[in-house]
Write a structure and sequence with these properties.
Radius of gyration: 15 Å
Number of helices: 2
Number of strands: 8
CATH superfamily of the largest domain: 2,3-Dihydroxybiphenyl 1,2-Dioxygenase, domain 1
CATH architecture of the largest domain: Roll
Largest sheet: 4 strands, mixed
CATH class of the largest domain: Alpha Beta
Strand order of the largest sheet: 1-4-3-2
Number of domains: 2
Shape: globular
CATH topology of the largest domain: 2,3-Dihydroxybiphenyl 1,2-Dioxygenase, domain 1
Strand content: 25-35%
Pfam family, one: Glyoxalase
Protein name: Glyoxalase
Organism: Paenibacillus cremeus
């Protein structure tokens, strides 16, 4: 068995780095962190307080994603403090989402897609809509 301690980072392919940086900083609320001087463009973001990271990598290849939001597609999930506040924020910024306040998973979920059609799940411990 491999003694896994935690997830360190998630890497996503993006086509327009500035557009993706704006989405992950302004809409999702992640803070950009220092990135080593690789020989290809990209950006790193810190996630929460546990040291996890999101790495954006500029990639000109093809992806499989063509349709809308699909929760069964490959995605990553971020735990949010408030389901209600997250919905309000997405509405305020005109971001399309699939809200599942009573999800079968046992916790409320919101699915969004980033500008490069990567699926992101936002979930909360409880549904605080009322």
């Amino acid at each position: 068995m491999i003694p896994v301690e935690s997830i360190h980072h998630i890497s996503l392919n993006v086509k327009d780095l500035e557009r993706s940086k704006a989405f992950y900083s302004t809409i999702i609320g992640l803070k950009e962190i220092e990135r080593p001087p690789f020989d290809f463009p990209g950006a790193w973001f810190g996630i929460g307080e546990g040291g996890q990271q999101l790495h954006l990598i500029v990639y000109d290849g093809e992806t499989l994603r063509e349709g809308g939001i699909d929760s069964r597609d490959g995605h990553f999930a971020l735990r949010v403090r408030s389901y209600k506040e997250s919905i309000a924020w997405l509405d305020q910024h005109g971001i399309q989402y699939d809200a599942r306040p009573k999800a079968r998973a046992g916790f409320p979920q919101i699915y969004v897609i980033d500008p490069d059609r990567n699926v992101v799940e936002l979930n909360a411990e409880v549904c605080d809509l009322e």
